[in-house]
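Design request, tokens follow.
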């Protein structure tokens, strides 16, 4: 009986740790976006976009990184790793593996509620098969732009 109780306690603690890890990923992602928005409010969009576009800059933290987009087009304004594929390109028809036009959703979230989450399926860096990705988007107050970051839940 004690072995079963010990096993159950171990399982409960393990599940709690997994839940905390997922909560940390989401809160870390949101905090990084908020940090980018704060910089945009303090130092302006030009300086912020330059920092976001720097792969060795302050907005690349482990697997997390910021990217930014305008509200008047479906494109990206800054990205630290895929600027050549995304910045200035029309991303209206870019779809995930399930047909979701996620850049349109980013723009819609930034325009309507001003911030929120978008889930879509995209390959992890170096992978071919898509995985669930969760991205937090926040409009920059007083700007026609949003800042976002996403993570792959474990």
């Amino acid at each position: 009986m004690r072995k079963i109780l010990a096993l159950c306690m171990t399982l409960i603690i393990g599940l709690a740790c997994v839940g905390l890890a997922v909560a940390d990923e989401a809160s870390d992602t949101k905090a990084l976006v908020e940090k980018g928005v704060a910089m945009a409010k303090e130092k302006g969009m030009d300086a912020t976009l330059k920092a976001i576009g720097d792969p060795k800059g302050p907005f690349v933290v482990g697997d997390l990184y910021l990217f930014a987009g305008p509200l008047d087009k479906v494109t990206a304004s800054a990205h630290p790793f895929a600027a050549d594929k995304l910045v200035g390109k029309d991303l209206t028809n870019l779809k995930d593996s399930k047909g979701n036009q996620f850049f349109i959703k980013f723009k819609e979230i930034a325009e309507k509620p001003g911030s929120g989450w978008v889930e879509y399926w995209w390959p992890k860096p170096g992978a071919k098969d898509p995985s669930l990705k969760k991205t937090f988007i926040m409009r920059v107050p007083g700007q026609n732009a949003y800042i976002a970051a996403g993570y792959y839940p474990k």
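Comment from the thread starter after seeing the answer: thanks! The chain has one domain: 27-151.
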